[in-house]
Structure formats: C-alpha cells, structure tokens
Design a protein that fits this description.
Elements lengths: L2 H15 L40 E5 L26 H13 L5 E5 L6 H17 L6 E5 L6 H10 L2 E3 L7 H7 L5 H24 L11 E7 L6 H15 L3 E6 L18 H12 L1
Parallel strand pairs: 1-2, 2-3, 3-4, 4-5, 5-6
Helix pairs in contact: 2-3, 3-4, 4-6
C-alpha cells in the first residue's frame, strides 16, 4: 500500500467533507456481537466539533470529490478547479479499521461526490459498509449519505448496514435549488427520503411481530440546509424544516452557514462566512 498516496487522499477528501455538518450519531444502539469491533450501544457515539466543523470522533470523509453535478455552492462542483482524489472501497475499509484500533475514531461518516452515475456511487458506499459489518464484524456507528436518484433497491440495502442515512436538501426552497443546483431537483431528494421513512416504519412494525427482523437505519435519517446561499429568510427555513420533520419523520435538520468557496454571480457577494449566531438562532428555534 502506498501510504504517501493514501495520506494525500485523506487530506483532500477529509477537507472536502468538512462542509457537511450533519454527522451527529445520536440514536445509535448497535450492540457488539460475536467478539466484533466497536460498540455504539451504551450511549451512542460521543463526538465533538473542531472550529472548522470537523467531527473528530468519526472518520468523516468523501469517497471521492469527483462529481458530475455543478452545484454552484459546492467546493466539489465539476467546474471548480481543485485537486481531485478518490478512495477505493478497500482503502476506506482499511482506514476505518486501522483508525478504530488506534482509538482515533468510534465510527464512520461517509459521503461522496457523484461519479459516473448515482447507482454506481451508491453501490460503492454500500459495499464499504457491508464489508465493515460482515468481513470485519465492525459494530461501530456508520452514517451513509444517500445519493439523489439512487435506485430504491440500493436505498433498501443501505439501511441494512448503516445506522443512519441522510440526504442533504442543501437549499430549502424549490426556487433556490433550481438557481444554484440546476442539475438537481427537490423531487430527486424527496423520493429517497420518503422511501427511507417508509422502510423504517415497516421494519419497526415487523420487529414487533418477528423479533429477528433486521433493523433498518435504526438511528433514523437526517438532512442539512445551507443557510445564506439563496437568500431565504429564517422564517422560510424554519417552515421548511418543520415540513420535513413532519413529512419524513427526520431525527435532525442541520443548519450550515454558507461558506464562500467558489465565485459565481448567482451567489451572494460574501467575503466571510454566514455569522455563527444565525446558525445558533436557527438551532434554538428548531429545538423549540
């Protein structure tokens, strides 16, 4: 294994993942069985955030920052001139196990840019989680990002290996998403959220009758809104969050202040990130 190259990939793909704040692991209760690795049963994963938003208790990385989409607000957008990298499935598995054994992490938060197509990317995210669970008997926390437009069959399998699934709405209004992410639509994100919700409800109902029914995403699902990129006010954001909580039974909605990482006339002319106090106020309103 070329450790210099792995370290280079880790630097690039961990940095690219820091803009995604939705990596809380509350709700995980996976027990350690058959002398496996890790245990998220006692109280979930204890985690903390560094000043730049990294969750230091989870290995928080992208599988790749190559992406076929050109979302204006995203540092990994296909038209952005940045250094690109991609892990193999086995590299992510080995990193997770080695970091866990060194007591650096307690779980994995895995997202990805979309390369080739949605299903191709989702298959690799699932394979990583499956290998960790079956080949290494890893019982730590796993949070997978689901890919817009991924097939229902893949979403179904993902929930069998991951503790939590999430898909980021990013822009809370339809008009804002159309302006800043022309390759995406709210419908592409709502469909998988609805599938995950229904699968969670079904699995919970079946387990009441047949205790051996496999758990499906036992820590639920979450999403993230980017604040300040499309001009929505806080009332619009909270109303959108309330809708998603009720419609899709989300565990959490996360609010991430827009960070000016690319230049485009459609983005607000900010020279500094959105004030942290705005994020704090949204979280306070969310809890209320």
């Amino acid at each position: 294994m070329n450790y210099d190259r792995i370290n280079e990939k880790l630097t690039i793909l961990a940095d690219a993942a820091k803009y995604d704040v939705s990596c809380s692991s509350s709700g995980g209760n996976r027990k350690n069985t058959h002398k496996g690795l890790g245990n998220s049963a006692p109280s979930g994963i204890c985690h903390t955030y560094t000043e730049d938003g990294r969750c230091v208790s989870l290995l928080k990385i992208l599988l790749t920052n190559h992406c076929i989409y050109d979302c204006i607000y995203c540092v990994s957008r296909k038209s952005n001139d940045i250094k690109r990298a991609a892990f193999t499935v086995d590299e992510v598995v080995d990193l997770t196990i080695n970091f866990y054994r060194r007591n650096y992490i307690e779980g994995l938060f895995l997202s990805s840019g979309i390369f080739k197509n949605a299903d191709y990317t989702m298959e690799r995210l699932i394979l990583i989680a499956k290998k960790l669970r079956t080949e290494h008997r890893f019982n730590g926390y796993i949070h997978l990002k689901t890919i817009p437009n991924a097939s229902p069959e893949l979403l179904q399998e993902a929930g069998l290996w991951a503790d939590r699934l999430s898909i980021n709405m990013e822009i809370p209004t339809v008009s804002g998403l159309k302006l800043l992410a022309p390759d995406k639509s709210h419908e592409q994100m709502i469909q998988p959220m609805n599938h995950i919700k229904n699968s969670i409800v079904q699995a919970q109902s079946e387990r009441k009758i047949i205790k051996s029914t496999p758990k499906y995403a036992p820590a639920g699902q979450s999403t993230q809104f980017i604040i300040g990129a499309a001009g929505e006010n806080d009332v619009q954001i909270i109303l959108s969050a309330d809708h998603f909580y009720k419609q899709f039974q989300l565990k959490r909605v996360y609010y991430s202040g827009y960070v000016p990482v690319t230049a485009d006339s459609r983005l607000p002319a900010l020279t500094t990130p959105v004030p942290t106090i705005r994020e704090n106020r949204l979280y306070q309103a969310d809890w209320l």
